[in-house]
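Chapter summary example.
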Amino acid sequence: MRRRSAHWSRRPRKRSKLPEHLGARHREVRRLAKLLRDARTREHEQAFVVEGPRVVAAALDRDATIEAVYYGVHADRAFVALDARMERAGIRRVVLKEGVLERVGTTVTPQPVLAVARMPTPDEGALAADGLVIVALGIADPGNLGTILRTAEAANVAAIVLGEGSVDAYNPKVGRASAGAIFGVQVLEAPAVQALDALGGQGRQRLAADPRSGPPYYEVDFCRPTAVVLGSEAHGLPPEIESHLDGHVMIPMAPPAESLNVAMAAAVLSFEACRQRAAGTAKP
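The structure predicted for these 284 residues follows.
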C-alpha cells in the first residue's frame, strides 16, 4: 500500500526564510536515515534523532543541544510556536521535499518534525547522587526502556545504568516512548558486575526485583541509598550477578499473575522510593 505524504497547512506567518527543500539524496537526509537506523552511527557521531513535535519541544524544555530541525511539507507553518522557539534559539531549520519523511522515517506514519540532537554527556557522579538508581539488564524492548526513562524522571530517580543485553537508549523508539525524558535522566552504560560493585562501594544496598523472593517493596527502606536491579521478563537476571547483590525485593501480586511488565515494576519501585524519601519515613 502506498503511504500518503502528510500536509499541514495553516495561515502563513512572517518568519525568516528557510533553506530550500532537501531531497532524499541530500547528504543531510542520508545522515538522518543513518542516525535513525544505525546504533554505530549514533555512537560514532554522539548524536541521534528526536521524532515528533511534542518530543522535540520536550527536548528544548530540558535544554537539549539540538543541531538542526527538519520539517515535512508545510509542517513549519503548522507548528508555529515550535518553529518560533527554534528560530529564537538559533537552531538551523530545514524543510524536506514531499515524500522524504516517508523514506527516512521509521514508522508507517512518519512524524512531521525531526531534530538531530547531541547525546547528553554521562555523569558518573549521578551514581552517588541522592535518589534511587535503576540497573536495567536485558531490557530489549525499546518501548519498555522508554517508559522506564519517563517513569524515572517523574519519580526523581538519580540515574539509570544500562547493562548487557539492553536496547540502545538512543534508538528512535526509545526516544518516542520516553517523551523527552531521555534528556532528563542520567543514563550510563556499564557491565552489570562492574556497576553493582561500584554502587556497593558507595554504600548503596543493591536489591534485585524478584517475583518470588525478598520482602514486599513497601517493607524495604528506600530512604537508604538503594540500587534496584531489573531484568527482562523472558530471561530474568543472569546468575553471575547474585554474589554482587545485597538482597531481593518483591512486588506481591494476586494469583494467578506471576510477573509484571518490567516497566510497570520499575514504576512501582521508583514511586515507592520517591514516596518514602518525600515522607522521610525510614523502615525500622
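To summarize the output: DSSP finds ten helices and ten strands in the chain.
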